[in-house]
Every structure is written in C-alpha cells, then in structure tokens.
Design brief:
Elements lengths: L5 E6 L2 H9 L4 E5 L14 H13 L3 E6 L5 H17 L3 E4 L2 H10 L5 E3 L8 H10 L3 E3 L6 H11 L2 E9 L10 H6 L17 E4 L2 E3 L11 E3 L4 H6 L4 E4 L6 H20 L8 H10 L4 E2 L20 E10 L4 E6 L3 E2 L3 E6 L2 E6 L4 E2 L2 E2 L2 E2 L4 E5 L7 E7 L1 H12 L7 E9 L4 E8 L4 E9 L1 E2 L7 H9 L6 E10 L3 E2 L2 H21 L24 H6 L4 E6 L2 H10 L3 E5 L3 H6 L2 H10 L3 E5 L9 H13 L3 E4 L2 H9 L4 E3 L8 H9 L4 E3 L6 H8 L4 E7 L2 E5 L3 H6 L13 E4 L5 E6 L5 E4 L3 E3 L4 H6 L4 E5 L7 H13 L17 E2 L9
Parallel strand pairs: 1-2, 1-11, 2-3, 3-4, 4-5, 5-6, 6-7, 7-11, 10-12, 23-27, 29-30, 29-41, 30-31, 31-32, 32-33, 33-34, 34-35, 35-41, 40-42
Antiparallel strand pairs: 7-10, 8-9, 8-37, 13-14, 13-22, 14-21, 15-20, 16-17, 16-22, 18-19, 18-21, 23-24, 24-25, 26-28, 35-40, 36-39, 37-38, 38-39
C-alpha cells in the first residue's frame, strides 16, 4: 500500500523521547514545562525541546510541541516568544487549543504548521472547514468519533486527520470538562486536571442509593485498536496517535514498537493482516484498565468502574495464607518471576507488591509457571482474591534495551562512495535516503604504496565502522587503484568529517529565520470605567438574558423582566414539537429579542436539524447562540447574527478579537475567568457572562446508566428517573440525559453572582445570562432579583442578595480563578 500512515508517540520526558525515537515513531509530541495540557508530566525546557528537535530530525522524525491549553492574557507574551524560538529552530508543528493563540500564530508566523488539539472538540465537517479557512494544517479529532464519521470528515474536507489509537480515554468531550476546575480550581483546560473521573462515587435515584458493581462510576477503560487497525487506515486517518505523556518510558517504547510492527505488517500485506496473541498480551501487560475500541466501533462498553488503575494481566488466585511463614499462597495461571510486580484485589482492599522472594513446595525459586502454587512473603493477611501481574520484569528489561543501548539504536541507511587515486586527495561522498549528500576530501594527498598497499577491503571496513553514530552503511562503493597508500587515521578522520557534515545538513535544513522584529507584547488597554465609573455605567445598556427550553419558562422569564431569550433546541424532537412562530411572536410582542441556542455537540447527522433552525432563524428570530466552530460557520453562511457560547472557550483578548473578526456579534466568556480577567477582555468588544446556572461540568457521549446496567442494550433506565452521583465528601452531582443518550453532569452547587452584579457590570460586560433550565419554581423569583440589581447597580448586598445563602451556592471562578 502506497499511502503513508504516521505513527505519533508521546514523550513526557527525555527518557520517553528516546524510547519513542528508537522504537519506530514517525513523529513525537512533547510539551513545554508550561502551557501544556499535561502539566504534571516532567516536560521539556526550551533548550531540551531544541535538542529533541535536532535529535529527531537527524533520524528523519518530526517533533510536534503541545501548547494545547487555554492561555491567560498575562501568559500570551511568553507563549508567542517560546513558539517563535522553536519556530526558528525548526519545530515541525505546534498543537494548540486556544483560538487566540491560533489567531496570533497565523498573523505572526503564517508558515508555521499548526495542529488543532483534541481539546478544540472538533467533531463535524463544518468545524474542520472553519479551521481550514483559518490556516490549520491538521485536526486531532474528538475521541468520540466513530469510523464511519471519520471517513466522512476526511472525504468531505481532505484535511490531515489525527486520531488517538491507544491509551486513556476522557469521560468528557475534551475541552468541555469543567469538573476538575469547579471542584478544586485545577483546570483541565489549563493542563492541571485532577482526574475527578477516576474517583469514587455512589449512584442515587430520587434520593435512594442504587447498587452498582463498582464505585468508580466515571472511570473509563483504555483504548486499544490493534485488532481494527486496517479499518482505521481505510477510514483515511493520516496519523495514529498514542496517548501517554504521563506514562513511563517502558510503556512508550513497548506500545510504539508493537504499533510500528502492526502498521508495517498491514502496509506489506493488507489482505493477510493479523495480530499475534503475544502482541496483545504485551499491550495488556504494559498498561490497561480493560481494553476496548472506545467510540470507534459503536456499542462497545466504555466504563471500567471496578478499578481506575492498571490491571496488567491476571496471574492467579489467592488460595490461603501461611501464618507460620507470613506468606500468601497463590495458584498461578501465568508465569511469575522474581522482581515482577503484582496487585491483589481483595474486596474493597487492594494490595500491591514486588516479588522479591517466592517459594514453590517450600523451596525458593526464581520463576514459577502457570499451574504452580507458590508462596510469597507478605504482612497482608489475605485468604482470597484475584492476583494481577502488574509488571513483567523480563519484558521491562527487554524493552529498556531497545532505547538504552546505542548499538541497538535506530539507524539511517546511507551510501558511501570513496575515490582514492594516487596524486589526489581522498574523496568521500555520503548520501542518505532523503537525497541529502555531502562531499569531503582530505588535505592528505594519496601516495603510491612503497611496500604494503591499502586495499579495498581495508577501506570498506573503515567506511562501515560507523559505531554509535545514527548512520548505517547500506552500500559502499570504492574507486581506487591497486598500489595506493592511505594512513588509516586519514581514512577515519575524513569519514568522520563526512558523517558530521551529513548530520548537520539533516538537522539544520529545517531551521527558519526570525519573523518577529522584536519580542511580542500583549497590548494593554486601560479600563474604560476606571476614570468615571458611575457615569460610564449610567450610559450603558446591560442585557439580562435567560436560557430556557420550554415555552412556559420563556413566558415566565419575559414576565419577570428579561431583555433577551436564548431558547435551547437540543434535538429533532424538540424542534418538531415546538411552535416556533408562536414563540417568536410572543417574545417580540413583549419587546424581547429571541435567539435560538443550538447544542454544543452537533455531529454529522445533526446537520439537517441545524439547517432547519438556522433557516427559520434567518427569517424570524434575532439570531443564534452557538457552541462549536461548525455551527458558527453554518450560522454565518445564513448571514445570521451569531453569538459564540462559552463552550468555544473564549478565554483571552486575542480569542475575542478572532471570533469577532470571524463575524460574531458577541461572545459568552469562559466561566473559568476571574472578574479582573473579564474586565481586561471586555474592553475589546461585546462580551456576556453567565451569572446564575447549575453549570454543566461534563458533557459525555457515554450514557452512564446504560453502560453500567445495560449490557444487552439500552433499557431506558433514565426515563422518569432522577439520577445523581455522590462523591466521598457527600456532594451530589445531578445527571441529565440528552438526545442520543448523551450524559451531562451538573455541578453540585448553583452558580449565583447576584451579590456581585455591580462589579460584573463595572467590568464592562454587555450582558449577563441566567441559565434557567434547572430553576423550576424559582425561575420568576430569580429573574426578578437579577432584574432589580441590574436596574440599580449601586444597590448593596443588604438590599438584594442570593435567594438562599449556604453551601448550595457558589461564585465559581469569578473570585478565585484557576490554575
């Protein structure tokens, strides 16, 4: 097969980088020590990144640097300077999430390849087209895409497509998770995810506990696509991405070498592709939380709620405890060796240990085979439990040898041509497979041999003696006479110079010139209201908007005094059952504008519904509120007034400028911003903020209830239910089930900024939003309170305060911010 598929490997530190490089990666993605979505990996300093780029380029391997977080205005200078430094050094691409950073990179470094991170949540054709028009070179698709959808997106756009093929799976759509930041201030969008989805939760329905087979109700299993690799290639995927910048080097090396082998196997003989049992066992042994093909093949079980960590391979069962020897008795179903790691699941207690001593029939052994009964010393008194081999020491040592021994290093084949003619300098040409070539000649002039001549075999042996260099002689061509004499030192020195020169060419040809005349500096705009706060406030109109999904809630909101309605149409069913004419007429007759709010997730099969909404809105409504780049692009094609909602992650001044330049009339800012950050951004255009909401913390394609209980298909258990999960501190998080069985997880506490409305208005926002979809009977009361405080922005908290004081309310990040 002629089409090349890239194998893209992770590296969280120098050792992992070498592991990926030596085991066959075509490209490696690494992160800087700041501004990376894996902040808790070791990551790389700027100088280490440059060294990694040089090492990779010398081997013909690409390096992509991740700057895939949301970036504060105060960090943008550093981000641009860092990327410019790497741009000059020849980085192959930058992976970004932040629309503001994307905007600046296209402006400042237009020839720098940019890849759209999976954190951008790209999941439809129109989103890809939006990014193509912005100059993005590759899209890393949302993990939630299935193979048919991927094939369609590739066919529709021709975009370079990257897809995760192995490793951890996020429960939430990437870039749409606020759970870590809202409960602990550590933002997943900023690389500080605390992994709350790997924690324990109880399931409740209508206040009653529901029994489950495990406690890790949001913990997903791991992705493994080895068995469906041909389907991935045939779907048109250009880059196979392995997850794992937080994983150890041995994991990176082991997984990369197997996928390298599998890709090559398919390319050589597509019709007879196979995966060996030993290869699947090795992948399983290296790390797994139970494997699946994720969302790529619809219907696969996604969650693994019993344990949130590596299982390795089942190695046996505990059959008793020998108190005399203080040792656990285990019946093995897999080979076990000294220095292997094991984990034992015993009820709610898990035990992990390294096997330093092992006895069979009372005698010490180094190795025990399947079927044996062994005793392993331990102070843990266990009489039963499943034993997992979590580390195979023999495998680990074998894997380490692939990247720790220079002799086994990945080599670049070269052809060496030598010309050795009496009376001329020694001439050497070295050429690699990429058509790079160097010519070197010695200062020494070749003499006629007086006694013993230098023969061709001697010259060939020296040319082949490249030792620990990155090159491997594929062919040596020698043109010489039979009576020449060349000192062996001259042969070696001239050869070594040629090798150094070829290495330099392979590295330096990727370097670029500087495109910034001076260091980038984020423009500073003085706040409009600081000079004359009260006068400035009095001269402004502040919209009070309410997001609703029923006609009655819309009427109640209008009665309570809103200026604008955002009406959520989140499914074909709701579109079919709504009387849009009556709705729009009612709002307009009350002097209220109405915008249609479309779902944040809009897959290919949602496009017909979207076109219907936008077609109607272009004739009757005042505009639309959209949540992803694809719906934004369609709205602009209909020439609609469009507001970018907060799932688009407008987090800084450049991102606001970018989306306004794209045609937005306003934007709802990220809920992870502080009051001060909002004030800085608001000086640059129309912005709105959510001030009251049961915030959606997670948007997931996985139906939690169906995955946990519906092994034989969906049983509609969510219908007429009121499910919630409860964490170990007793906080409850409501679950909402949307069209197509998606799950939304809501915050345990309601955002309430009533006491701080004067400060929000002074920050320069154009409007504030109440999300009333979960307010029920409190809707009218809530809207009236906000209406009152907006009408009198100088009213103190003693006159108007939050409806109910207490732990069920929060000010979100307005006053504390995020890491």
């Amino acid at each position: 097969m002629s089409r090349k598929v890239e194998l893209l490997a992770p590296a969280g530190n120098r050792e992992s980088f070498m592991a990926a490089l030596e085991n066959g990666a075509d490209a490696i993605y690494i992160g800087a020590q700041s501004l990376s979505a894996r902040h808790y990996a070791d990551n790389f300093s700027p100088e280490e990144i440059k060294d990694a780029i040089d090492q990779a380029h010398s081997r013909g391997v690409n390096v992509y640097v991740t700057v895939n977080t949301l970036i504060k205005d105060s960090e943008m200078d550093h981000a641009i300077d860092l990327i410019h430094e790497l741009y000059i050094h020849g980085v192959d691409a930058i992976i970004v999430q932040d629309l503001g950073l994307l905007y600046l990179l296209r402006e400042k470094m237009p020839d720098l390849p940019v890849h759209a991170s999976t954190q951008m949540n790209i999941h439809n054709t129109e989103s890809i087209r939006f990014l193509q028009e912005t100059g993005v070179d590759r899209v890393i698709l949302a993990r939630e895409m299935n193979l048919d959808e991927i094939h369609t997106l590739k066919k529709n756009t021709g975009m370079d497509i990257e897809v995760f093929v192995h490793g951890a799976i996020c429960f939430s759509y990437s870039g749409q998770c606020l759970m870590s930041s809202m409960i602990g201030g550590r933002s997943g969008n900023r690389g500080h995810c605390a992994q709350p989805c790997r924690r324990k939760y109880r399931l409740r329905n209508k206040g009653e506990n529901v029994e489950t087979d495990g406690e890790y109700l949001l913990s997903t299993g791991d992705l493994c696509t080895a068995t469906i690799l041909p389907q991935l290639i045939e779907a048109g995927i250009d880059s196979f991405k392995i997850e794992g910048r937080m994983k150890k080097a041995e994991y990176v090396a082991g997984v990369v070498r197997i996928y390298r082998r599998l890709i090559d196997r398919y390319m050589e003989d597509p019709e007879n592709y196979f995966v060996q049992d030993s290869e699947l066992e090795e992948l399983t042994q290296l790390f797994n939380r139970d494997f699946s093909t994720g969302y790529l093949i619809p219907g696969e079980k996604l969650l693994s709620i019993q344990r949130p960590y590596n299982r390795g391979m089942i190695a046996g069962e505990v059959i008793g405890y020998n108190r005399q020897r203080s040792s656990i008795r285990i019946s093995l179903c897999e080979t076990l060796r000294l220095k292997d790691g094991i984990g034992i699941e015993y009820g709610c207690d898990d035990v992990g240990l390294i096997v330093y001593k092992m006895y069979e029939n009372g005698k010490p052994v180094d190795k025990a085979k399947s079927g044996s009964v062994v005793e392993i010393p331990s102070d843990h008194v266990l009489k039963s439990g499943t034993v997992y081999r979590t580390m195979n020491n023999l495998l680990i040592n074998d894997i380490r040898s692939t990247y720790m021994s220079p002799a086994k290093g990945r080599k670049v084949p070269v052809t060496i041509e030598v010309s050795a003619i009496v009376g001329e300098p020694l001439k050497i040409q070295v050429k690699d497979m990429d058509s790079n070539r160097v010519y070197v000649h010695s200062e020494y002039i070749i003499e006629r041999a007086r006694t013993k001549p230098t023969d061709k075999s001697q010259i060939e042996d020296i040319m082949k003696g490249l030792g620990n260099t990155i090159f491997e002689p594929e062919n040596v061509i020698i043109k010489s006479g039979d009576d020449i004499f060349i000192p062996l030192g001259q042969l070696k020195n001239t050869r070594n110079q040629a090798i150094r020169d070829l290495t330099d060419i392979r590295v330096k040809k990727w370097r670029r010139g500087s495109v910034l005349s001076e260091k980038y500096s984020q423009p500073v705009i003085e706040s409009k209201h600081k000079k004359d706060t009260e006068k400035w406030i009095d001269n402004r109109d502040i919209y009070l908007s309410v997001l609703v999904n029923s006609l009655q809630d819309m009427k109640n909101s209008i009665y309570a005094g809103v200026n604008r309605i955002y009406f959520a149409i989140d499914s074909q069913h709701s579109l079919n059952t709504l009387n849009l004419d009556d709705m729009v007429q009612y709002a307009h007759s009350a002097g209220c504008s109405i915008y249609f709010h479309t779902p944040r997730i809009t897959r290919e099969d949602d496009m017909e519904m979207l076109h219907k909404i936008f077609s109607y809105a272009s004739q009757k409504a005042d505009g639309v509120l959209v949540s992803n780049p694809g719906t934004f692009r369609i709205a602009k094609e209909f020439d609609l007034p469009v507001i970018a909602d907060y799932p688009m992650n407008i987090f800084n001044t450049p991102s606001l400028k970018f989306i306004l330049q794209k045609g937005a009339c306003s934007t709802v800012l990220s809920p992870e911003l502080t009051m001060e950050q909002i004030e800085d951004i608001a000086q640059n255009g129309s912005v709105e903020c959510i001030v009251h909401s049961k915030m959606t913390l997670i948007e997931s394609e996985c139906c939690v209830i169906s995955d946990i209980f519906g092994s034989d298909g969906c049983k509609m258990l969510c219908r007429d239910a009121e499910f919630e999960i409860v964490d170990e501190k007793g906080y409850s998080f409501p679950l909402r089930f949307k069209s197509k069985c998606r799950t939304s997880l809501l915050n345990s506490r309601t955002l309430c900024m009533l006491d701080h409305i004067p400060d929000i208005i002074k920050a320069g926002v154009s409007g504030v939003i109440i999300d009333a979809r979960d307010l029920d009977e409190n809707l009218k009361k809530t809207v009236k309170l906000y209406r009152k405080v907006i009408d009198n922005t100088l009213a103190g908290p003693d006159q108007v305060s939050c409806i109910l004081k207490g732990s069920e309310y929060t000010t979100g990040h307005y006053l504390r911010g995020v890491l």
